[in-house]
Amino acid sequence: MTTRSRVFMVDCQVTGIAGDMFLGALIDLGADVSKVTEAIRSLEEFIGCKGLEIEVKDVIRGGLRAKKVDVKAEETRKMKGVDLLKAVEKCLKNLDLTIEAREYALSTVNTLLSVEAGLHGESVESLHLHEVGEIDMPAEVVGSAVALEDLDAFKSKIYSTPVAVGGGLLKFSHGVVSSPAPATLEILKIKGFPMKGGPIESELSTPTGVSLLVNLVDEVVTFYPPMKPLKVGYGAGTKDFKGVPNVLRVVLGESVRHGLFRDEIAVLETNVDDVTGEVIGHTIERLLEAGAKDVSVVPMLTKKNRPGQILKVIASKEDLERLSRLLIEETGSLGVRWYPCERYILARESVSFELSIEGRSEPVNVKVARDMDGRIVQIKPEYEDVKRVAEKTDKPLREVMHVIETQARKRLMEE
């Protein structure tokens, strides 16, 4: 299984996510528990606490077995935001972690502290910590970074469902507020991460949990991506809800996409039978200039067996209404059909290089298509460049095209 074919799926759509749930799920998935606990214990040297204890055990939540992680310590001094950040930085430097793991942990802590500071109208330097200052947060962040690295997650594609945030009221250091907590909601807002209320009246997602989530996930999906599940990990929350297992599920799998990227688009269609070829041609130009990805015309028979055309437009969802309006105005159609559509695609880029042919050097551009593993699948020279070189060298177009493709592939493979 190649690195990019590995898939991680964080399923937090039922009972949300908390730091201990996420760490428990990663350990249950197969992360080395000794590495994780040793990393957390090393925090004691830098955080103001003593007697740090870590317990990892199996518990039952709603009839399901899951891993529960508890971290306890006696607090010896109050820390400000900047003190906590420096302590985590020092701890991470002492651990044998990759750059990706260290950056992930620091990004998670920075997200939490900056949000808390903003909510309280303070700077991170002057921020007095309450819930965030307890040992749980740094322990869960450092432990999760170590576990994710041990599972080779940072080299995988990581998906998540929209996160459940629960509902009702909750008490914290500043009084009673609605769920989700202000910090949880602010983190989701800043990162543009989708959430859903319910399904029960309780705080289901914590600031630490969502910060760990939003700094990790590559893509949010409603349904699981095409994958072969290989391992499943369950992390337990503290509470035991009636009728809903309070567990976070994380799935490790193998992609069945064969190295192709997935893209979500919109398809627009309208039938016309009373417009000229000039109007259709002009409409296609306008649509492409306005941002349509592609436009095609399909012959058809309309009522009374009159010949007509279907104008089919591929577009981004954000351009849907604007392009529909343009299509109606240009063709005189009374309506436009649209439907969402998924497609598998290759990553595309335009590359320029100097072509060497018959003792001369010519600048040319080629379109390069690659799969998820970075392999070159297709190289296509720009037609105008091929035509120009063919005319200058008096060589057949097909021969020039072959020379450009060969030289471009060789140079790209050497990079």
Keywords:
415 residues, Alpha-Beta Plaits, Ubiquitin-like (UB roll), 3 domains, 11 helices, globular
Rg over CA atoms:
28 Å
Anisotropy-based shape: globular
- What would you call the structural class? alpha+beta
**What's the order of the H and E elements?**
EHHEEHHHEEEEHEHEEEEHEEHEEEEHH
Taking all residues together, what is the mean pLDDT? 91
Count of separate DSSP helical elements: 11
Short recap of the structure:
By secondary structure, the chain is α+β, with helices and mostly antiparallel strands.
How would you explain this protein's 3D organization?
- The chain is α+β, with helices and mostly antiparallel strands.
- Helix content is 34%, strand content 33%.
- It is built from 11 helices and 18 strands.
- The strands form 6 sheets. It has a 5-stranded mixed beta sheet. A 4-stranded antiparallel beta sheet has the order 13-14-12-15, covered by helices on one side.
- Helix 3 runs antiparallel to helix 4.
- The chain starts with 5 loop residues before the first strand and ends with a helix.
- The model has no long low-confidence stretch (mean pLDDT 91).
